[in-house]
Amino acid sequence: MKTPLLIIASVLAMALAAPASAECYADYKAKQDGPLRLHYGVAQVSDGNCSPGAAQRELKPRLASAGWTLLNVLATFGPEGLGERQASAGEFYLRY
Question: Signal peptide span per the entry (predicted)?
Fold first, then answer.
């Protein structure tokens, strides 16, 4: 009787762990002052938690080190969303 429960628990644990290792990306908007510059970009997020909040925590210091201020994270997504965003992000596609 314990064996089926152990198998179910193992499968459930593996299923929950799989999304944490999946690729995660975020699209965002950022700005620089003096003169004002805005950009839309796409970045890979390696936090392990593919949520807008986790992406914001990771991208804010990354962009700041290059002189940019993160305005907002628009969405987080997997590799399937990269192609449709590449042209819009231009030079800021996977740059930060």
Answer: 1-22
Spatial distance between the Cα atoms of 51 and 37, rounded to a whole number of angstroms:
26
35 preceded by a cis bond (ω within 30 of 0)? yes
What is the residue whose two structure tokens read 């499968």?
11
Spell out the per-residue pLDDT of the chain, length 96, in tens. 555 554 554 544 444 444 445 899 999 999 999 999 999 999 999 978 899 999 999 999 999 999 999 999 999 999 999 999 999 999 999 999
Enumerate the H helices of 1-96 as residue ranges.
2-21, 52-64, 82-89
pTM summary value: 0.75
Q: Specify the residue for token string 């890979």.
A: 44
Please say whether the beta carbons of 27 and 41 come within 8 A: yes
